[in-house]
Amino acid sequence: MATAAAAATRRSVFLGVDVGTGSARAGLFDEEGKLLGSASSPIQIWKEGDCVEQSSTDIWHAICAAVKAACSLANITGEDVIGIGFTATCSLVAVDADGSPVTVSWSGDSRRNIIVWMDHRAIKQAKKINSSNFPVLQYCGGAVSPEMQPPKLLWVKENLRESWSLVFRWMDLSDWLSYRATGDDTRSLCTTVCKWTYLGHAHMQQCEKDSRDMEACGWDDDFLEEIGLADLVDGHHAKIGRSVAFPGHPLGTGLTPVAAKELGLIAGTPVGTSLIDAHAGGVGVIESVPDSETEDKENDKEAICHRMVLVCGTSTCHMAVAQSKLFIPGVWGPFWSAMVPEYWLTEGGQSATGALLDHVIENHVASPLLANRAASQSVSVFELLNKMLESLKHDLNTPFLAALTESIHVLPDFHGNRSPLADPQAKGVICGLTLDSSEKRLALLYLATVQSLAYGTRHIVEHCNAHGHKIDTLLACGGLAKNPLFLQEHADIIGCPIILPRESESVLLGAAILGAVAAKKYSSLREAMRAMNAAGLVIHPSNDPRIKKYHDAKYRIFRELYEQQLAQRSIMADALA
């Protein structure tokens, strides 16, 4: 009786684990989605030209450290955690039959068994795949990106033959994490559909509430054979996934004893099928609307289709769902059940956003001085730049802050254009440079870069709406969503309100929601989202017509910068022909 009473009074705590580009993070949440505690641990990364690599062994050690630290900080015991979810970047992991790492690096270093999501080594392979015009390409905006897995797999096959022959499992990083935790090789509909050209709608007759492992019947074998990956068809696709499941589906018998010991948790704790990090951000935020908006629309399946989630970190992902499939050139999808089960996902993106702002700031001659001043004032560089812009507006008597950049125009495609142009060869442009190398000039360049990112998002939203979406509300999460200037410029430029979630750690919450579904606390992912998402601050666009007119003019220049680049590319190609 005592044991039963203890179980009845046990706290319902859900653990979300997220592996980003630079760190592994763990967050603990209650059943209402409130953050109880979190911790992070850095992870190693190797960058050499277009090649970016990591180590699955290093990542697992970092996860274990982060989970133990989060539990300690929140005063949570392993017994309190009743469900776990994993999320990660869409990086590619290679392991052998024993689960040991297989190198994917020119260096031959066996630790380096992950091709990181941002790696662009496979541009040539992506071009080759796209020339096939296979029907599956319709479901990723008409073309695969070098950031997706088929081009990367083809690169390894063509360049690292020994590694290719040794690999027993190729896995998306978040699927590898849940496999490492449970021993269950079932893949997520999120990872396989979004990054591997798996056709999730092969399962449209199957319902999330009848949750089970489903035989992987969505692989297009003809496509794999045509592009040179016929050997991945062998053994019912054993190397890339024989079974798939809806996100949040409970895997195996939960945590294995080995993984439980490493994490400081209890063997058998339910683990949910994983999500890619951006998609977990979507799950953690898309139902975070003010109560007044949910009263009339609680059961309205269409309400969620008016929202787009911006997951803004190193890069930005733009996630929107629809009840019917919408084919949008240059935008990934439609992906069935890849984020919200039984909805079609459209996924736009910008390959460098936080990374671009860091690059622009850190490569400016005034950067060291600015960093020292920020440190001495115990504020971030962004906070200092935002303050400087307010001062400049006052000193120059500018009608509104955005007008400070009337002579500086930026095209932010420093790492190619993911959406809606799908041009990995696009380059960045800064128009309006002078010999002024002061901190004030850096502040203006920073503002112009923030605006350029917002113009890129406006281009994506307009393009999606022109092809059938009805997006009128944005929800933002991730590191950049903590920057008020970034948010206000986006609201003004796109003309939509931006809702922030109550909890700032939306990706971790999305991962924890997977654990809550796996633990059967909620009957579906959508039910768990409604229970654990909550709205915070709402940023409204300016109603000043001068600001709208200004941004419309700058947006026109923004669009022209790319057209000019295409013309210049053509002129130079002719010159070298």
What attributes does this structure have?
577 residues, alpha+beta, five-stranded mixed β-sheet, globular, disordered N terminus, FGGY carbohydrate kinase domain-containing protein, Carb_kinase_FGGY
Q: Radius of gyration, rounded?
A: 23 Å
- Give the spatial strand order of the biggest sheet: 16-17-15-14-20-21-22
Low-confidence stretches: 1-8
Major sheet description: 7 strands, mixed
Distance between the termini: 84 Å
- Portion of residues in helices? 25-40%
In short:
This protein has 577 residues and is of the alpha+beta class. The chain contains 20 helices and 22 strands.
SSE diagram, text form:
Elements: H1 2-9, E1 13-19, E2 23-29, E3 35-42, E4 46-48, E5 51-54, H2 56-74, E6 81-88, E7 92-95, E8 114-115, H3 123-130, H4 149-159, H5 161-166, E9 169-172, H6 173-182, E10 187-188, H7 189-195, E11 214-215, H8 221-226, H9 234-237, E12 243-245, H10 257-263, E13 271-276, H11 277-285, H12 291-294, E14 307-312, E15 316-322, E16 332-336, E17 344-350, H13 354-362, H14 367-376, H15 381-396, E18 409-411, E19 429-431, H16 439-466, E20 473-477, H17 484-494, E21 498-501, H18 506-518, H19 525-532, E22 535-539, H20 545-576
